[in-house]
Design goal:
The chain is mostly helical. Helix content is 71%, strand content 0%. The longest helix is centred in the N-terminal third of the chain and has 32 residues, at 5-36. It is globular. Residues 1-12, 90-104 and 339-347 have low confidence and may be disordered.
């Protein structure tokens, strides 16, 4: 029996996406080992994060094919329960911090995953009542951010919910994914500009007031480490040993509170490029996904919000966050049972 052209193309693009993703994450793991070689670097945290994303993505691809609504709903519930628990402790915390985990961005990231999972379940559901119930649950979870001690989490989660509602009216996904990529690049660019003092004084002061002067000082230390060793960085998990601000701070977790600046300081420019490649691969995989556009754009909005949270916090130091991000991406890129795109082209 001949395979229909659209189905064959879908499988070909999916296979290409899987190969590229495998290469990118293998590169992240290998570079962590390379940047730690011959020094006191500790690559275990990076390797654990890569493993968590890969495991979550694989589980999402499998369960997303078998039971997408139930799996997304379970992710939403689990992430929200962990967000509530994060005010006291976060299972899988790799930051080794004496500071309250809620201050590190874990609550915000988990709220984003909870709302993203609920909205993905709603977008994949064929029952109107179930879909509306899931959207209401997502709204309640998002608005509970201040109660859980994370106003930023509420803002990010509400943004995901609004994007999900807008995605329900969109048939083509490329423009939306391009917007997510642009927003992420803007966030990264502004953060770097703050660290190198490239912004006008008034704007810089306003942003510093939101970020806190302590965090900006940590970022400036990270930039200094990049300038000292732009290729290999200082070595994985060595920022706390070399940052004057971290060394002088009480209860410091030894992190710059930004995935961008941590990788730049500890693994050099190549580490940042690999992080960017990983996010770019996620967007590419979503573009070629056989899932419906509302599901794809909802997942893209959640992953973009998570990237924003990780840019200004150390949310990626928590295994539940990295595993949840992988699971959400896997759900949104899983094949339909028949392997076909449900009535639309992924453009």
């Amino acid at each position: 029996m001949a395979v229909p052209e659209s189905r064959s193309a879908t499988r070909e693009h999916s296979g290409t996406s899987d190969v590229v993703g495998t290469a990118v994450f293998a590169g992240c793991a290998v570079w962590a080992l390379v940047s730690a070689a011959g020094r006191e670097g500790r690559p275990e945290g990076v390797l654990l994060a890569v493993l968590a994303v890969a495991a979550g993505y694989t589980c999402g691809r499998i369960s997303g094919t078998l039971a997408p609504v139930a799996t997304a709903g379970t992710l939403a519930l689990a992430a929200y329960v962990l967000a509530v628990a994060a005010r006291h402790d976060v299972p899988g915390d790799t930051a080794e911090s004496a500071a309250p985990p809620g201050d590190t961005g874990a609550v915000a990231a988990l709220l984003v995953l909870a709302v993203g999972g609920a909205c993905c379940a709603a977008a994949a559901s064929g029952a109107t009542r179930q879909r509306n119930s899931l959207l209401v649950a997502a709204g309640v979870a998002a608005l509970s951010g201040p109660v859980l001690g994370s106003v930023a989490g509420m803002v990010a989660a509400v943004g995901v919910l609004l994007c999900s509602l807008a995605a329900a009216r969109m048939r083509h996904r490329l423009l939306g994914l391009a917007g997510f990529a642009g927003a992420t690049c803007l966030m990264v660019g502004v953060s770097w500009a703050v660290a190198v003092k490239a912004l006008p004084e008034g704007l810089a002061a306003a942003l510093e007031g939101q970020l806190t002067a302590h965090r900006v000082l940590l970022w400036e230390d990270a930039v200094d480490l990049v300038r000292a060793n732009p290729l290999l960085g200082a070595g994985p998990d060595r920022f706390g040993d070399l940052s004057p601000t971290a060394l002088e701070s009480l209860n410091s977790d030894g992190k710059p509170h930004s995935a961008l600046f941590q990788l730049a300081a500890e693994q050099g420019v190549a580490g940042v490029l690999l992080l960017g490649a990983a996010f770019g691969w996620l967007l590419y995989a979503l573009w070629r996904s056989p899932r419906a556009t509302p599901v794809v754009l909802t997942a893209g909005a959640a992953l973009t919000a998570l990237a924003a949270v990780a840019t200004v916090g150390n949310a990626l130091s928590f295994t539940p966050v990295t595993a949840g991000a992988g699971l959400l991406a896997g759900l949104a890129t899983a094949r339909s049972p028949d392997g076909a795109i449900p009535g639309e082209e992924p453009v």
